[in-house]
Amino acid sequence: MKLMIGAAMMAASLYAYPAHAQEWSDDQADVWGAVSAYWEAHVDGNTWHEAMTDGSYGWGGQSLLPRSREQMASFSRVFGAEGEVLHYQLDPLAITVHGDTALVHYMANIIETNHKGEREANVERCSDTMVREDGEWKFLGWGCADMGGDD
């Protein structure tokens, strides 16, 4: 039931923003390309800390508190990958770029197996703050809120 509600919420939010991708500037498209590439490279390996700049924090959908880059690396060494992402879809909602800083809002729909091998579907609402360092976009911070899924 939660999956249906989450999917309906995502569809409604996407309906409200149908033309944004067609109106993006080169900078906005570049930032979205970086976010998408980082998801592809890190979605399954617990290596997100590699995409973060020094002094950055991330707040995952199921985390109680934000974690620093160092804390995320430590958790990855101890726990490793706890499941497998079977499929994911990212849907951008809004992107703003000011110089070497960008804010990216999007929805992430994730189908995965958990540590028990059971299939789960989750929808997360994400906001990423990106900074450009040496010509490359990196995460300064992010927050993803779990919007629910199938329990």
From TrEMBL:
Keywords: Signal
Superkingdom of origin: Bacteria
Signal peptide extent: 1-21
Limits of the SnoaL-like domain: 51-140
Protein name: Nuclear transport factor 2 family protein
